[in-house]
């Protein structure tokens, strides 16, 4: 039996983030829409031809987008947010919905399942679904004109509706409204010669998948009645499915993830659940990590799968949107580079397997096999860790610590502070880039940093904040910065991955044992502290977040890697304490997003997260105050774990949730320090005193005043200097008035 290869989606960004630059150039009015579209078409072409080079049996189309593929689908079906309705449906409308404009706020961004990609949430309020310009067909025709064997990709109706919000209709009603529109699009693609259409239904791998079965059955029956069943492949990823159910759907093929399924998809196949006549689209190459495949193991997986289907297509486990494009442009140490595999290298792995099975051509296969073995032979497990010798809980309970801290810090009622970063101005970014590219000396760079720190210490003094920060000017990114300095991490040059819209992140790669070798943040923090009598907070990223926002090694259990990072952060915490820093903040903004998709894994995940955080932070003296920060407010089921972190103060986002937080914190009587984000830093808008005062009042009804801090929602690095100064002054003025009014009331 011959096997075929396919792909689910390719990174949009381009090898050197050309996509981002093209789009941002248009936003900055550097050229018009025609020019932008020309640039993007060129990029799309490059992506298609690049994939074709790897001999793929079919290349996906519909993954490429101007911003986000879910937003594309919303526009295709005219699910336009009410406030943007009445305008022509075109690219400018698309950008406005995604980014907001002068009159209207943008649509919400939400994390795409458990990845770091964010999609634009479709809004149903007053939506009038109909078919707009069929961009998908256009892109498919374009691929054909390039002689690329392609298949269209579209998010399926069940997942689309499940990820959307608003509207008075029921779930079923929404799906039913969309079905005729889907049918028309699918039919147009079939007519245009599409060999099959990949319908992404990742919602079917979640805890809730059972609830969707009836409507899923009805939807795909509808397509079957329209004569489409031989053309549709239901694609899932990120977790296991209920194969019994999927097997009963009238479609040509099923796409399953065999990497992130905890072994359950394979087990169901072995149990004989799959109908042999369905095409099995087997996701066997990890689409989310950057390690070269164990090609021998993949070969035997294929052999196993062949026993259970007549028709096998091998492909990555998910879209390659989640990995960088290519290793070609990197200049990495070859001994490590050999072990890596970005998007194009993954396609090469598929090609090697296809040649092996179909043509008895084992040249590439053997090459990859040798390379993999060579990489495995190197030992990246060199270090011994004594986890036992580091504390996993503070010396005294919170009440006692608080006493010691209050005596030492002597802070006023309702202390004010910020979350860490100050504006990363053009100048800051330029200095850092110049320094990285050796255009300026270390001394010149350091002098600039000192100057910037000093300037912002003065600004904080003038505004009248109580606890200062140094501003994080030396950091490009809160994870990459630590990746660059800790042993065991590798930082790539072009390893960018789209996070949302034009925003990309460059996760460091953890390849070896993590170790702290020298202070990472002490110099800047101490310098800031030397300029003021107010306490300056040390600013670190926590182990859970560092791991979550890195490409992690797979040769060790995850929790062990996380604990190694925790020990490294613990060293830095102690170095800061030793240097006299009295407050240390360990940020964990990724703690919640790392939560596994299936709830059966939640408890174990949270337990390990708490342990790692405590390893990182428990060794300090009672009088040293540990803060943590998370940029969201819906804690819900994880609130107990948050409490278990035992941080002296937690700062969280609340301004956009209008007090929702209070409920979660009330439910467990949260009696540790808590800093409330009283204004939204994502908007350039300056908050009013009334708003801030009201937010504080509302919170104080639930939270003990002696535990309460006042701060912005998150770091201020994306804001302009003037905005920051103005907003923080409003914050401090509001608090000062509150202090006065309460004092006079007490008299
Ligand atoms: N300390 C970081 C900052 O202020 C926190 C960022 C975050 O929570 N994402 O930028
Ligand atoms: Zn934040």
UniProtKB/TrEMBL annotation:
Enzyme class at the top of the EC tree: transferase
Textual note on the cofactor: Binds 2 Zn(2+) ions per subunit.
Keywords of this entry: Amino-acid biosynthesis, Metal-binding, Methionine biosynthesis, Methyltransferase, Transferase, Zinc
Residue numbers binding L-methionine: 419-421, 472, 587
Domain Cobalamin-independent methionine synthase MetE C-terminal/archaeal, residue spans: 414-734
Presence of the UniProt keyword Transmembrane in the record: no
Pathway: Amino-acid biosynthesis; L-methionine biosynthesis via de novo pathway; L-methionine from L-homocysteine (MetE route): step 1/1
Residue ranges occupied by any Cobalamin-independent methionine synthase MetE N-terminal domain in the UniProt entry: 5-308
Residues at the catalytic site: 682 (proton donor)
EC number: 2.1.1.14
Classification via InterPro entries: Cbl-indep_Met_Synth_N (IPR013215), Cobalamin-indep_Met_synthase (IPR006276), Met_Synth_C/arc (IPR002629), UROD/MetE-like_sf (IPR038071)
Molecular function in Gene Ontology: 5-methyltetrahydropteroyltriglutamate-homocysteine S-methyltransferase activity; zinc ion binding
UniProt similarity note: Belongs to the vitamin-B12 independent methionine synthase family.
UniProt name for this protein: 5-methyltetrahydropteroyltriglutamate--homocysteine S-methyltransferase
Organism: Staphylococcus caeli
Annotated gene: metE
